[in-house]
Structure formats: structure tokens, C-alpha cells
Amino acid sequence: MDAFLSCLDDGPTASPPRAAPPPSPALSARDLYSFICSGPLVDRIGYTKEKVADSIGRWLRCGVDVARLLRLDELQLSEAEKARVYQFYIPVFLWCEDQVIEHRAKYSEGDDIPPLVIGVSAPQGSGKTTLVFALDYLFQVAGRKSATLSIDDFYLTAKEQNELRDRYPGNALLELRGNAGSHNLQFSVETLESLMKLTKEGIKMKVPRYDKSAFGGRGDRADPSVWPEVEGPLEVVFFEGWMLGFKPLPNEVVKAVDPQLEVVNNNLEAYYDAWDRFIDSWIVIKIREPSSVYQWRLQAEIAMRADGKPGMSDEEVMDFVSRYLPAYHAYLPKLYKEGPNGSKPDHLLVIDIDEGRNPRS
């Protein structure tokens, strides 16, 4: 192992530097090996120190790919950037890749193999969208076709959301998009079923997208002309959302959290058949305290406004997030204790994150 590590000490060629927090020294392969092994996810993805050593070249190549995707200088990463790349994104990618390989091994040569759907359940602002962005890119670089979906892509249109609000006057949890009941479940089933049929070259479809910036941040489904197109054969679909895997609870339990949650809880009954039944492998990002969502969501809206898109004001963010908190308080404990509906231990990766959105032991 030492001889192998020493031959990699020079590392890859650096990309042009960019303004960044105070950097750490450029990592040698030997330093990188120790840093990877100290990460909280290595054991959880089934990697021993020997397996890390045998695959260190792969870790280096993936690190370069992720750093450049995120416009980081791969040779001068800050400590936070280094942790995000080598102790979070790459371990999760390697776990996902193993899940896809296992899934495809169940089929015989010549079979039409449907893509593996990996669900990513994580609270708003916790970094799931960037994680999925990185995972999708790493699969593409590895030559494995992938697609991404969010539960946001199945929100009701702005007109339908207004109609939902009018059906439940005074219920703040259904006034805006977000909670169970504010999605077009039939549309989501049709989309997922179509993606499962992308098993051959040349078969294409457009994947829906939602525009959160429309109507001053209240959102609307994006015009189909801007939906991305994906082509088979797909190997994996990443499906992410803040409430994926939530399970209905007895009504008296949710009413004790918030009486307005009762109708949301009843709506949740239909979500397993619409979403969870398609998901074979799960990533659950676990947070300590739901109130962290306020700050994370605020950061996301600030970034949206900085990108020139209209977003919610700080006050609107506070109001918006308050409509999700009852569901977090009601459903997260059971999700963390039991896992999502239909999940199996060998196909479930739970990642505890801190307030900086990095994995913790």
C-alpha cells in the first residue's frame, strides 16, 4: 500500500485557482488515505481500510471530478470543502454505485433492466439537491446513465394550488406548496412509470421541473419547453424530497402536534403507492433539530436572489418554513426510528449531519 500511495503523491494537475476560504495544504495520496479512513461514512458503506487503499486512485479521480463540478480547486481545498468531497459525496456515490451493481446483477443477460430508483429523504436546505447534483454527475462520468427527480417537480400548478387553498380555508399547512396534498400524484406515477421503461438506447423522455421562483417565490410548474430530456438505457434515478418516506400516524398523534395536520396526515395515505413503492434503495439525511431548516432555507433563498431570480424575503421564508415544521416534528421521529416505507437494512444509508451540513459520527 505504501508504495502505491507514494507514487500518487504528486496528485492531479490543478485547475485555475479561485477565491476561497483559507486553504489546507495540497493533499498527498497518503494524507488523503488517512483523511478518508477517518470519515464517519466509511464503515457505513462497507469499506475497510484495505478496501480504501485498493481504491485510492478512484477516490482521487472522483475528488477531482466533484471539485471541478463545484468549481473548487482540488489541490487547495478548505477543511470544510475537503470533508464535503471526500467524507460525504464520494462515499455516498460509491455506496450508490454498489447498489446499482447489485440491482443489475439480479437480471439475466438480454433482459430489459429497469433503472434502480434511489430515494434521498432530507429536510429542506440540508444539501440534498447539491448531493444529488454531484451523484448524478459522478454516474455520468462513470459512463452510467442517470436521471434526477424531486418531489417538487410534482407540485400542483399555481392554479391548482390556489384551488387547494380555497378548499381548506384557514389551514396554513395547505395554503402554499409543500405538505401532503399539494402534489399531483397521478402525474408522478406516470412519470416514474415512464422512467422505468427507459431500458434501451434511443428511448427518450422529458422530465418535469418546477420553477420555485415563479409568482414571487410561490412557484409554478415550469413550461415543458425547458424540461430536461433523458435517454435510455437508464441505470439509476435519484428521487429526492423533504418528505419522502414519511408514514401516516394515528390522527390523535398528529392533532396533538398541530390540529391542521390531520388533513395532511389523511392525504399521506396515498403517497406510498405514488412514490415509495418505486424506491428500492434509500438515503436518509438525519438532522438533530428541525429548527435548523429556517437558516438553511434562508441561505437557499439568498442564493436564488443572488443568481438574479426572484425569491422570498426573509420574513416570507420564516412564514414558509413554519408551514413545514409540524410535519417534521410529527413524522421525522418515526422515519429515523424505522426507516422509510418498504426500506430494507442493506439498502438504507442513514447519514447524520451537523448544523454545517456535514456527516457526523
From TrEMBL:
Residues 117-242 form the Phosphoribulokinase/uridine kinase domain. Gene3D superfamilies: P-loop containing nucleotide triphosphate hydrolases. InterPro entries: P-loop_NTPase, PRK/URK. Pfam families: PRK. SUPFAM superfamilies: P-loop containing nucleoside triphosphate hydrolases. One of its GO terms (molecular function) is ATP binding. This is Katanin p60 ATPase-containing subunit A1. The gene is LOC103651345.
